[in-house]
Amino acid sequence: MKYAETASGEKIEAVKGIEAFCPVCREPVLARCGQIKIHHWAHEADLDCDSWTEPETEWHRGWKTYFDPLLVEVPMGPHRADIRNGAGLVIELQNSNISPAEIREREMFYGSMVWVVNAELFADRLFLTKRMGPDIFAFKWKHMRSSWLHARKPVYLDLGSFTVKDLFGVEFKRPDAYSSRVAKDLFRYDGTNGAYLDRSLVGIPDDLRGCGVLRLNTVYSGGRGSVRVTSMAGLRELLGAVAE
């Protein structure tokens, strides 16, 4: 946890020597302020009362800093919503794999919510293959995390250090000169005239090339579908971020 509460109800970050409590179960928590992991609060024996908790990363922390502390790790019944903005929209930050059952469970529990997924971990397996509209592209997700087929709430892929211009590519087969088998190879190209990527990205609007967020639009088994491109600033504004 990034935040715990003092006996008086003040929300504070992890500090050694301060008595603090979990905002959900009200049990005492310990400040973990080592040299390797990011500073955080932990339940005794690290047995978190929230079964949906995943290990917090710098990526989680980065997102949480864009919101007022009062909107972060908000108690809702037996769980802590990662972020719950001023309009009551829950923003679930997902870094690790998640099962279809847990996706459905969280969506039913929170109701008004969106997913923000750390896609930098697999962005090298995302390929935009065709422009379908002003900001909509067909995509191929190699070795897709298929659990996202079951999401019914909006899913935003945070590309991190990657941008749209990095994702244009196509998957095709070619004969292998040294083998009787057919090898699959992935090549990045500009998606409009078949030329290999030279960073010109002919036909792709300049204002989209540097965008770093994809919203899943349609997703099919096999890792294909369509996405809508937006900027990180646009997503933060949409989600009600209040800090820079």
Describe the structure.
With 244 residues, the protein is α+β, with helices and mostly antiparallel strands. Helices cover 14% and strands 34% of the residues. The strands form 4 sheets. The protein has a 9-stranded mixed sheet. The longest helix has 11 residues, at 100-110. It is elongated and about 60 Å long. Mean pLDDT is 81; it is low at 170-186 and 189-202.
Précis, in short:
The protein is about 15% helix and about 35% strand. With about 240 residues, the protein is an alpha+beta fold. It has a nine-stranded mixed beta sheet. Strands 3-4-5 form a three-stranded antiparallel beta sheet, with no helix packed on it.
What percentage of amino acids are in beta strands?
A: 25-35%
Give the quaternary arrangement of the chains. Answer: single chain
Poorly predicted ranges: 170-186, 189-202
Form type: elongated
Number of helices: 5
Helix percent reads: 10-25%
Q: How large is the radius of gyration?
A: 21 Å
**Can you count the beta strands?**
16
Structural class given helices, strands, pairing?
Answer: alpha+beta
Strands of the widest sheet, in order across it, are 6-7-8-9-12-15-16-11-10
The separation of the N and C termini measures: 21 Å
Q: Biggest sheet: strands, sense, closure?
A: 9 strands, mixed
Instruction: Write down the overall mean pLDDT.
Output: 81
The topology string of helices and strands comes to EEEEEHEEEHEEEEHEEHEEH
